[in-house]
Amino acid sequence: MTEQFVLKLCSDRTAFEIRPKKPLTLDLLSLKNELVDKTGMKARLCLAAILLLEDDQGRVVSIFPTGRLLLRKFSTQDSAEEIARLIAPLLYSTI
Questions:
Q1: CATH code of the domain covering residue 15
Q2: CA angle 91, 52, 83 (to 5 degrees)
């Protein structure tokens, strides 16, 4: 299966960035509960423009309506990719 997203280290090297391979528009308000259930993370902020999820270790996932994700405080690319693979089917299933 072809990957639905591209993961890279941000230019300021403080977060990992994930972008879908194809453009999309997400309804973050309707996805919130499903993402919280799937990841076990807590929703810290949920607006039409951004959804912030945080786990008990202080790792934060910012989700934008364009499908772009910023993963902060993930110590390795593998840990960022692990959460991306968990979230991707929910976000990018229409791609």
A1: 3.30.310.10
A2: 50
What is the distance between the alpha carbons of residues 8 and 77, in angstroms, rounded to a whole number?
A: 8
pTM, to two decimals: 0.91
pLDDT in tens, 27-66: 999 999 999 999 999 999 999 999 999 999 999 999 999 9
CA angle at 53 for the pair 24 and 51, rounded to the nearest 5°: 40
Candidates 53, 64, 57, 2; CA nearest to 28 is: 64
Other beta carbons less than 10 A from residue 45's beta carbon? 11
Identify the domain containing residue 61 by its residue range.
5-91
